[in-house]
Amino acid sequence: MESNFCERCNNNSYNPHIKFCAKCDGALWTSDIPLALYKLLLQEQLSVEKPIDLTLWTPYKNFDSIEYMKSGRFADVFKAEWKEGPIRNWDPTNRHFERCPNHIIKAHLQCKRNDSMVSLLYAVSQKPQSNEIVLVMRYAELGDLKTFLKLSEKDPKHLSHEERIMRLGDAASALSDIHEIGLIHGNIHSGNILFTKNNAHICDFGRKSFNDSRSIRDILPYIAPEVLQHKPYSKKADIYGFGMIMWEMFTCEMPFKGVPHELIWRCWDPDPDNRPNSSEIVEILYESAGCFIDEDEEEAQNWFQLFDSVSEIQQSSYGISDIEKDDAIDIY
């Protein structure tokens, strides 16, 4: 067995697979790194078997053309040019990283706490003004699942049936990798399935609580019924969400599109004063039910699916009546 002992610095910080010392070689790029992150990266660097798998600390000043893209539930998303670029190789003789300069990257700015793990992680940085942590990843040029499916609307040849299956296979493989090392994704929905030219990837895993009721409305169809009853989030809950991803991939529609989620949430509001009155409910329902009069078969089918789902939930152990009144909104 090869030793982790480094003869240069006399520490057990040497990775014999890539001839890299996390202490002395790592010192070339870790001058201002927070201690907790340094320890985390140090541990990771002792186990990788290829230089390309190294996760580095990179100063925020190394990013150019920073462009805001969107806000997620737990992070803001930016696109930028990375001057140095990700690692291509490590030269142990000259102690020098071979890089891919001006690589387009996507950074997830963790606003409150850095408790999410992401796929395709190249480096970690820190925003100087706020000390917020930045996770640097490859830019997914084809966007998330929703954006990816819009491309097929413009060009039907863009996404064949075989291509859909292959892309789902990529995402399923990523989920399997997460599960095999004993982790749970905990946040499966269409916004966390990202697409590059040749592959599909899963990002933002490790989050298994949803404390803001408004933040879960858009992803409610992906949340397993047992999670709504405060049962522990499990790998099987991930599978439930992935089933909805498959539905969306093949139908090009979000699950239960067209049903009045906002109205339902308002009816469930813990504060009685925020609930709609019966006249408002009638008006909204008749407006939504116009799909039947207009013979919009797809919209009508969405209603039938909702009614069937509610009926099944009422007959199962996950009945709405079983949810504590004070806990009907917050999900942990």
TrEMBL record:
Gene Ontology terms: cellular component: cytoplasm
Pfam family, one: PK_Tyr_Ser-Thr
Protein kinase domain: residues covered: 63-332
MF annotations from Gene Ontology: ATP binding; protein kinase activity
GO BP terms, alphabetized: signal transduction
Signal peptide start and end residues: none
Domain of life: Eukaryota
Protein name (Swiss-Prot/TrEMBL): 12080_t:CDS:1
Organism: Ambispora gerdemannii
